[in-house]
Amino acid sequence: MRRRLLFVLPDLAAGGAQPMNLALARALSARGWQVRLAVLFDRPPTIALAQFSSLPILRLNARGTLSKLRALARLTTLAREADIVIGGMEFAATTYGYWAAYGADKAFLSWTHIAFDRHQYSAPLLDRWMSRLVYRRCPHVVFPSHGAREALAKALGGQPARANWTVIENFLADLAQSGPAPDAKALTKPLVLGIGRLVEQKAFDRLLRAHAALRAQGLDHHLVILGEGPLREALTAQARALGVEESVFLPGHVGNVRDWLRHATVFALCSRYEGFSLALLEALAAGVPAVAMDCPSGPREILLDGAVGRLVPADDEAAFTKALGELLCDEALRAHYAALGRRRALDYTPARIVPRWEALLADILCEQAR
């Protein structure tokens, strides 16, 4: 049985989904699968690719309308040389991947990482319409959480009758990169750490308000938010307006997240929605006690309904602020959650997760062979 896979990605940005695709492709390649990756758009990579040098990565460099059509034609040619095409993310990766696989008469699988019912509104109307059309036709979809699966069902008005939807959680991959040492000034106080792109979805405006409220209560600490994005200026202005600009640090995108996690007192997640939250899992693995809003979807499942970390109601900033303050003030409570979090992270090793991918892919190949 041939085992040739083509992963389709929009770009090589350093979010959660793109590195996860690269990590899975690398793991499957090490297990004997023939893997190639096609990158759709002409955008500069922000992932350090040296650790993925064994993977063949093909750049299609799509820009305008004609270039995108040529990219789809090239992708269809690549799909003919594969046994399964994997649209590694929602929107473009799934849409282009599906039509390329359809044109090549090959099996297709969408890996959808996000709470799609919420996330779809971040895309133009045409992209939303095309995505829903493809999902209704798509035979296989993989989600990192049950909540992400429920979100797509909500967006489509139910799971299509013949669709095979599977939950396979993300796993902890060795994606460590070098980078400058954490800012020594930031480390002089107890440190609350947030990680993510500086975008509306991640709701770091909430984290700034919680930080300011706790400092106003006399709880001296620093806030570090790792990530880059279009809301940098707005968040900087908000910190200034709240009078906490001296205690807030925005180092931008960093490759050495683990170095910062080693110094963190508490990890904070206050997103409006997620799909899984690899950053939350990385914090647990590093022994950093976590406070997370119960947003759709992922945090509740990772934290086992709040058993291994503090879980507060979605959008409840008062409860979020209180939980952060309690952890900052209680060393024994932090140690309790740190130990539980480390044990929970053991459920997300590649040795546990990657074989589930292999079993699913083998089933799809058998289905195609019938």
How would you describe the overall organization of this protein?
The structure is a single chain. The longest helix is centred in the last third of the chain and has 20 residues, at 350-369. It contains 14 helices and 13 strands. By secondary structure, it is of the alpha/beta class. It starts with a strand and ends with a helix. A 7-stranded parallel beta sheet has the order 3-2-1-4-5-6-7, sandwiched between helices. Strands 10-9-8-11-12-13 form a 6-stranded parallel beta sheet, with helices on both faces. The protein is globular and about 65 Å long.
Radius of gyration: 21 Å
Measured as a percent range, the helix fraction is 40-55%
How much of the sequence lies in strands comes to 15-25%
- Briefly note the structural class of the backbone: alpha/beta
Q: Please provide the ordered H/E string of secondary-structure elements.
A: EHEEHEHEHHEHEEHEHEHEHEHEHHH
Task: Estimate the global geometry from the Cα principal axes.
Answer: globular
Question: What's the rounded overall pLDDT mean?
Answer: 95
Number of helices: 14
**Biggest sheet overview:** 7 strands, parallel
Walk me through the topology.
Elements (H helix, E strand, L loop, with lengths): L3 E6 L7 H14 L3 E8 L15 E6 L2 H16 L3 E4 L4 H13 L2 E5 L4 H4 L5 H13 L2 E4 L2 H11 L7 E4 L23 E5 L8 H13 L5 E5 L5 H10 L6 E5 L4 H5 L4 E4 L8 H8 L4 E5 L4 H4 L7 E4 L3 H13 L1 H15 L4 H20 L1
Parallel strand pairs: 1-2, 1-4, 2-3, 4-5, 5-6, 6-7, 8-9, 8-11, 9-10, 11-12, 12-13
Helix pairs in contact: 2-3, 3-5, 7-12, 10-13
